[in-house]
Amino acid sequence: MRDHRSRGLSVAEGCRLIGIARSTYYDRLEKTSDDTAIVEAIAAICDEFEHYGWRRVRAALRHKSMIVNHKKIRRLMREHDLQPRMRRRFTVTTDSDHNQPIFPNLAQDIIPDGPNQLWVADITYVTVVGGFAYVAVVLDAWSRRVVGYAISRSIDARLTLAALTAAVEGRKPPPGCVHHSDRGSKYAATAYRDHIAAHGLVGSMGRRGNPSHEAFRVKGYFQGGMGLSLFTVSMV
């Protein structure tokens, strides 16, 4: 209204003519100003992370100390055509077609009552600028927290070995701690199995592509999380 009212016409007169209160006019003016800053922040996030939906956008805004109601985020993304781009639904992280030895499934009989009794290892991926990166993670099944991780653009045994090394050096598990994973070649590799044995860990493997259906999925740990630039881990 301010841009279209005639010269000499006061705000009060303009509001009276269109039948709204002056407080409503100023509330809308302030709201438009506030929304502009929010839209600019959302647009910047969507430009960097084009696959982000409103949940991840909300998390990214909070990372910028901007607390915005999810309904407003959804509305602004819809109104300003900031909808996420679709991506392929599945990225292969497990290769079970190999001739390496397979550990028996010991995790199905374990209910941990303390830390460093059962570790669960898996590989997932997170969105980064220009694509995605692989994250190898070792979680403690009792605390459900990260004890070791490694990040790389490529997926091979060096990635999983780096995560295991970080876990062992950081936690120094007692002999007999069970290390559970899927049957993928990255976990069945000779170097990885040797590292497990050298540190007194006991190997365990689940069914194909599912390291921990008895406990929990590492991939679920990251669902609804942010991209790698916002990725933080909580160490025990």
Automatic annotation (TrEMBL):
InterPro entries the UniProt entry points to: HTH-like_dom, Integrase_cat-core, RNaseH-like_sf, RNaseH_sf, Transpos_IS3, Transposase_IS3/IS150/IS904
GO molecular function per UniProt: nucleic acid binding
UniProt domain Integrase catalytic: residue ranges: 111-211
Gene Ontology BP, a term: DNA integration
Pfam family, one: HTH_21
Residues annotated as signal peptide: none
Matches recorded under PROSITE patterns: INTEGRASE (PS50994)
Protein name from the UniProt record: IS3 family transposase
